[in-house]
Amino acid sequence: MNAYEALELMRTPGRKKIILDTDTYNEVDDQFALAYAMLSDDRIDLLSVNAAPFLNSRSVSPADGMEKSYAEIFRIMRLTDPEKAAKIPVFRGSDRFTGTDREPVRSDACENIIETVRGSEETVFIVAVGAITNVSSAIALCPEIAEKAVVIWLGGHALERPDTKEFNLKQDIAGAQILFDSGVALYQIPCDGVCSQFITTVPELEFYLRGKNPLCDYLCDITAGYTKDPFGWSKVIWDVTAVASLTVPAAEEAVIMPRPYVTSDCRWAFNMARKPYIYVRKIRRDPIYADLFRKLSSI
Asked: pLDDT-based confidence at 230, cuts 50/70/90?
C-alpha cells in the first residue's frame, strides 16, 4: 500500500482494525489515548494492545518501563470497559531498544504485529505512541507485512526543527531508521511544532470530566499530578492525536512528501527520491477534544 492509498483509506467511513502500541505508564497521554480507542467503536476495531519500552524518571530500565506500561494498560482498560477489557489481548513488548546494529528485538508484541497483519484480510493500522521498537522489529523480521499495514506514529519533531530529539524517537534512533527506511505506509505526527498545539488545562479537564465516572476522575488526577504549580499551566495530551487520525481525520491536515532519513545524531536529512509518506503539518485541537470529552464522560 502506498501513501496515497493509505491516506484515502484513513479518511473513508467505517471501522478500521488497529493495534495500539503504547508506553502507557510513561506519562499521562497514553491513558487518554487507550481509553479513547476503546470508546471509539464507530471508527475503531481495537484488535490488541502492545506495551512499549521506555526509560525516564518513571522507570529504571526499558524493560521496567515496558512492564509498568503493561500493568497500566490493564488498569485503564478495566476502568474504561471491564467487559471489553476481558476480550482485548495485551502483549508484553521489547525489553530493550534496538541496537546500532539494527538487529530486531523479539517479543510477544512484535510477534503479535506480524501474526495479526499476516492473518488479516483487511489493512491493519498500527497506532504507535511510544518508542517504535516493537513495530520496527516486526517490520525487520517480516518485511512483507508492509503490504498490509499502515503505521501511524507520534514521534520526532517537525521537519523544520534543528533536530528531532523527541522522546519517542531519541530512545530508539535505530528503530526509527528501520521504520523510515522501510516500505511500510507511514503517517507521522511530529511533536514539537505540530502536536505541541494539542493542549488542555486542569480547569478544562475538571469542567468536562471530573465526577463523570472513575476513569475520568483518574485521568483528572494523574494530569493534575504532573505539575506542582497548575496556575496558568497547560498540558499537551500528545498521544490522543494518533488515535484521532482515525476518529476525527478531518482535524489533521496532512501532506504527502518524500520521507526523510533519520541520522545517527537524531536529525532529519532529505532526499527527494525517497518513498513518499504522510506528514501531518497541522492539528485542529477543538474537534478532537470535543469528541474525546464526550466519549470519556459517556461511560
From this structure: confident
Please write the tens of the pLDDT for every residue from 96-131.
999 999 999 999 999 999 999 999 999 999 999 999
Distance of CA 247 to the CA centre of its chain: 13
Residues 6+ apart with CB under 8 A from 57: none
Is the pTM here over 0.70, yes or no?
A: yes
The pLDDT tens digits of the residues spanning 173-191 come to 999 999 999 999 999 999 9
- Strand-pairing partners, residue 51, are 22
> Cell numbers 488497529 correspond to what residue?
18
Distance CA 230, CA 21 (A): 30
220 contacts 210 by C-beta, under 8 angstroms: yes
Residue-wise pLDDT for 255-267, tens only, equals 999 999 999 999 9
